[in-house]
Structure formats: C-alpha cells, structure tokens
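Q: What structure does this chain adopt?
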Amino acid sequence: MNIRAVLGVPAGFVTWWVLFYASTFVFAALWPAFQEAGRPAVESGDFSQLTTGMLSLLVVMYFWVNPLSGLVTVLITRNRKHAWFTAAPIFLFAAYQHFYFLWNNLPDWYNVLVPLLVPPLVFLGGMLVKTLEQR
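A:
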C-alpha cells in the first residue's frame, strides 16, 4: 500500500462526514421546519417529526455526498479501486444504523435506500476522476 492510499481513503471518508454535516446544516438554515424536526431526532432519537419531504431531501443529499467522497479518494490515490475502501466503512455504518438501530424509527423505504446508495454512488464519484482528467 502506498502513501496515496493511506491518505486518500481516510480523506474520502472524512469528506463524506463533512459534506453530510455541512449539507444538513444548510438544509436546517434554509428550512426552519427541518431544523425543528431534526433537533429532537439528534438530541433524543425522536424521528417522528421528520416528514417524507425531509427524508426525500436527505436521500437527494446522498447523491452528492457519496460521489464526492469517492471523487476525493480517487483524486488522491489515483486508483479507482480505492473508492471501494472508502465506501466499505460508510456502507457498514449506514447498514448498521438503518437496518438495525433506526429500523423501527424511520420508514422502511428510507432505511433500505440509504445504505444501498452508498457503494454505487461512491464508486461513481471515483469514476468521474478519469472524466475530469480528460478535459
């Protein structure tokens, strides 16, 4: 394993978390109802106030958070296969959260969709590197 992989995989992982929190912060700033519903969810685990629209917005968010984490990983490592090393811990965390911990608190469609989006979208982000380099 080279230094690029040692730096790139954690950078992609950290990118995912930074984008996740930054995006939810922006959503809360722009949509006060999202903030009001999200506060009890974060503080006490009460997800009952999150509406279908709010959960849908979070799903849409994963369409930039996941690919950008893969993009950062591959930009640093220069190897698309390393995107899978970034996707794996994110997927495992999301699978634990949504298939076990949150299963009874959020709708089934959301709990299934969130973890399943991680691997293909992270890898897709990694595939964008070649496209960007050809320009």
